[in-house]
Amino acid sequence: MLFNSFEYLIFLPITFILYWFVFNRNLKLQNLYLLVISYIFYGWWDWRFLTLIAFSSLVDYNIGLQLDKTEKLKQRKQLLFISILVNLGLLGYFKYYNFFIDNFKIAFESIGIQMELSSLQVILPVGISFYTFQTMSYTIDVYRKKLEPTHNAIQFFAYVSFFPQLVAGPIERAKHLLPQFSKRRYFDTVLAKDGLRQILWGLFKKMVIADNCAIFVNQIFEAPQDYNGITLVFGAVMFAFQIYGDFSGYSDMAIGTAKLFGFDLMQNFATPYFSRDIAEFWRRWHISLSTWFRDYLYIPLGGSRGGVWMKVRNTFIIFLVSGFWHGANWTFIVWGFLNALYFLPILLTNNNRNHLDIVAANTIFPSIKELFLMATTFTLTTIAWVFFRANSISDAFNYYKEIVSSDNGFLGNIEFIRMLPILFILILIEWFQRKESQSLIFSNKFNWFNIMMIVVIIILIVWCGNFLEPQEFIYFDF
Hints:
The chain has 478 residues and is mostly helical. It folds into two domains: 25-184, no CATH class; 190-477, no CATH class. The protein has helices spanning 6-21, 27-43, 49-69, 73-109, 128-143, 153-161, 174-177, 189-222, 229-260, 278-284, 287-298, 308-326, 330-348, 368-389, 393-405, 414-432, 448-464. The protein is globular, with a radius of gyration of 23 Å.
């Protein structure tokens, strides 16, 4: 079920009304209701997916209970190993099996050996990369004794399957989200209004920005040889805005929906395209994933505490694994490799924590230096996005080649022209809201300016949104 679909438009208010007016008297009943609703939401794509998420939840719930019963280090390590093996095993089977099989075949065929290996004809379960990491965070934190294991199965299963952020994040930590299921929740009018504004802003970024950029981007990436270099540059820039609008739009809708039900989810994006270096970008882009890798992979590997070799090794590991997490394609690995190259000079010169504050913190406009740094970071990021969007490495290099060599015509259609003022609106609003945890939150006061902004956003969604054929979110494929 898509956030931008008519089904969800019916699903959400019914779920909301029953949650607060029927099931609100009893916490256990309310959590059970959330669990059932979340399974209905997830099973809307394919009911067979439910067995997978239920099995993953059952394994980690029981491992948490077993970890609570023993203090023996050997047994605790064995239990943690089982959790990681099951979760990564399921993820590897459904997401990466064909990638490894195909590449093994190619490798052996290159030296004259024919391998009879069959690929799997399986559907990638929606959101498996997200809820797998969410359940793993629970067992790892319980193993580290940073979290008390829960003995309430309903709360744990509801935590894993919580429908707003189930299929594309944010990837919540058990330490943050799970305790919220054990506390009585009361309806908060201010929080609900805040959530509705965030949902509206997410719909704008998805339906107005991402889906309209996609029209332009798809045309160009399908046949880059038909367009000149300037058009191809615009195509890459448009994809940068498409993936931002698509993914951060989902996160906004997820966080806003959670607020309607009395839950607090972590911020997943913090105006990343206003970053002044690549390190700041990764502190602001897909925050839930980057911090997950930092806490559960980078720091355990030694982080940046060791010598130069350890810093280089760990940097490449974290970015290559992050790239591979996104998809079973060499393009994502190269995308991760490029970001590691970007990050390495900053790390080795100890400049990776230079920009911890917000850009132009005490002024309305950025300085010339800040503008240059933001433009440079955005350019480097956009260059890497070409690999993320391309179907293959050769397609990506061909795209770069056409930028510098093609002399074909410019795609001067109405879709491209219409996007320029809309992108300006996005950038303008996010710039003046860059200090906030979300955009479209100019003031909680009821005034004409707020009303005007909300009306403008609604008009743009109605005018530019594709309601007949709602587009899936890009990260549903990951």
